[in-house]
Amino acid sequence: MSVFLPRRPPANLPSLCPSFAGLISLTARRHESSARRTTKRLRTKPDPSFTSSIPESQINDHIVFNPPSSAPSPYHTPPVFLPPNDPRRQLLVQSHRHANPYEQTERRLPPIIKHHQPYEKKYHLREKEIEEIRRLRTEDPYTWSRAKLAVMYGCSPFFVGIIAPNEGKRAEEFKKVEEVKENWGRRRRYAREDRAKRRKMWGRDE
Amino acid sequence: MKALRLLRWSGSVLSPRTRPCCFIHQTQYRPPFATNFLRFQSTAPIQYTPNIALEDDGKSGKAESIEAFFHNAPTQEERETILSQIPSPPPGQAHKSARLSALHARLMLPPRLPLETLARCLVDPSADIDSQFNNSSLSILGYDLLGLYTSEAVLCRHPRLPTEVMFAAMWAYCGPKTIAVITREWGVEVAAAPGGEVDPGYLQCKRVEAGNSSVDGTGVQVKELPIVATDSKGKPTFAEQGWRRGASSKTIKGDYFGDEIQRTELDYAERPELRQEDLQRKLEKGVTLEQASTNFVRALMGAIYLHAGKKAAYNFFKAHILSRHLDFSKLFEFRQPTRDLSRLCAREGFESPVARILSETGRKSRTPVFVVGVFAGKDKLGEGSGSSLDEARFRAAVGALKGWYLYSPLEVKVPSQAERGGQWEPVLVDGGEVVV
Amino acid sequence: MPVQAIRTTSTARNGVGAFILQCKRLDFHYCDHWGSSKGMNTFLRSPLLPRFAAAHPQIQIHISPRPNTHPIIRGLYINGREKVICVRNLEKEQILQKCELLRDATGEKVKRPKGGRVVGSLNESVRGVWDPYHGGNKEIFGGRIVGAGR
């Protein structure tokens, strides 16, 4: 809570009174004349979160729920993660409606980052089609890439990779990437390495 | 659960000189079997010189016991000669060491633990190969006790911890590195070289040669020498064979830190000569300070259990090991948390997780900040912030997974509490970590 | 590999479980001839020292002469440092006070904590570290403030 100093009287300004500038202290002094203004400034209103929606009669008979303005601690288990027989589960529901603000009908959920298409596994490919995929992929792996086959047969590229792995092409692609990396200069290589290190720190929560 | 009366059949573990009674009736006490008490020429690695007039009592052995020798009031010179020839300080010296009794008081050890046993705990097998005088047998017991107490404390308080993290938590509480630190914080000093004349208050071990010390004054450093493969090393480790070990292999075949056990009892049963070979190698090459302190703390734990009972052992563990601070949330390292979280939600029957932007600032600036929450339906599972949407989503998933794994029940009673006279209560057993 | 673990060590909190007195050893040095050792010599002969030693069995006590110098007390600590106090011309009660000072010290250099209100705790605060993105935020949809977020 900050306390504001009373405005300096003009006599204290060094530019107006150069000879006394060194003698007069620039720190604020409390005088009878300024006491009223100082105490008035100290009398601050409480934060609205402490007073709102509480009738005067219940002012001393309520619990203030003021969540901390900090990131949640990993030691606070979210209510959904509590086992059904944990007493905290009931307590959280009973104690205050703030346990989950999004349960209220008027609260909207925040916007989603990325809308994924709901993907359902269909399990529709039979032995014959799988043989066909394998044949195409061994014949010409560059024409029949995983993505292309996946679109054609309505499955995921990951599944194509499982049923028809092509080690030869994989090694070749790796070699190509390695060759490109060989030509990188110092700055680019360092930048990439640093980025990988930073990414590793995400998982360690550093 | 029926409690074991370890003290009753611990005679084979405790050598007779370190029974509790010998602390009380120190002068009157005589061992029932003199043969147990003696340090024989055949077992002691160094021979006593014949010019010391040790009485030969014919039947029981070549040399009289050291205790009896001191009892006969030898001259100062004789005393020093014999002390310099035995590998570790004799038990009788324990009461003369201020350092040892200061250590006993500093650790607030139970009064039933005699100084002789404390002195024995400080003798590493690398200093004295004789298992009647070193701490090897006590440290085996202490190793198991530490494992039991730590694992129940970790697992009952955090029943959902993944196996790898559980191993890391065990390692953080009672791993060799931590125990070496504990030994230092207890103010235990290490003897420069072990021997009978050394104050028994020092940790006695033969130190392995430093990597940067020169070989015979040639200027070549020890670490630069080629590693000579010894034939007695046994089978190659999994890492040497190029295998990556999974959690189940670590659980079944590893110790309680998930590390591979070099020698199992099965190996020793197959080839009994291995045990002596291993001991001999330790005696020749020495051990690191970390290994010696590990043996000491484990042996002390075992000694307290044998002399003062379960309750004292658990209290000692609680005071010195469990009271240490460990932030469990810093033990995790996730590679693909978003994938793990969606698998977890599918397994537990929640709606599939969706990342939503809670707040953001400076999207088009050089330093944006996004705060992203992961939601399953209307319930927020976790939250994270980052300078890109990808990072924030990743961190939010990490937060949600930690929220799941770090669940801790409100009131826990560990199983060993029932053994110490409490009521046994079942603890939560979780379905286990997410398997992808 | 779903989750890997990072190996760390736990940190000590002296006094939370067991309390380890940081003073390991006290060395008392005296001189038989110099007058500055008069108080020290009476202290060593008085019952004060045995009483102090009996009250603190975790401290080793060494007494040795150090001729033709002022008397000193040297405290040795678990962190490997030592602290020396010269007790010339002090009375025995004052020397006992110095012993207690050495007993209570940690062996660290005496430092003034910077900032005046330094809190040294391993536990995180109940309300966490403040950041500007939580608490009192306003939710905006289409340029319209719809409510307070948290």
From TrEMBL, chain A:
Pfam family, one: MRP-L20
Protein name as annotated: Mitochondrial ribosomal protein subunit L20-domain-containing protein
Region of interest: Disordered: 30-56
Highest taxon in the source lineage: Eukaryota
Species, as recorded: Stereocaulon virgatum
InterPro entries: Ribosomal_mL58
UniProtKB/TrEMBL annotation, chain B:
Database matches in Pfam families: DSRM_MRPL44
UniProt-listed Gene3D superfamilies: 3.30.160.20, Ribonuclease III domain
Compartments (UniProt record): Mitochondrion
CDD domains reported in the protein's UniProt record: DSRM_MRPL3_like
Principal location class: mitochondrion
Keywords, ordered alphabetically: Mitochondrion, Ribonucleoprotein, Ribosomal protein, RNA-binding
Domain annotation DRBM: ranges: 336-406
Family: Belongs to the ribonuclease III family. Mitochondrion-specific ribosomal protein mL44 subfamily.
Designated name of the protein: Large ribosomal subunit protein mL44
The organism of origin for this protein: Stereocaulon virgatum
TrEMBL record, chain C:
Domain of life: Eukaryota
Membrane-spanning parts: none
UniProt-listed SUPFAM superfamilies: Thioredoxin-like
Ribonucleoprotein is among the record's keywords: yes
Keyword Cell membrane: no
First-listed, main subcellular location of the protein, grouped into a coarse class: mitochondrion
Residue span(s) of domain Ribosomal protein/NADH dehydrogenase: 32-106
Alphabetic keyword roster: Mitochondrion, Ribonucleoprotein, Ribosomal protein
Compartment list: Mitochondrion
Family recorded in the similarity comment: Belongs to the mitochondrion-specific ribosomal protein mL43 family.
Protein known as: Large ribosomal subunit protein mL43
Organism for this UniProt entry: Stereocaulon virgatum
Source taxonomy: Eukaryota, Fungi, Dikarya, Ascomycota, Pezizomycotina
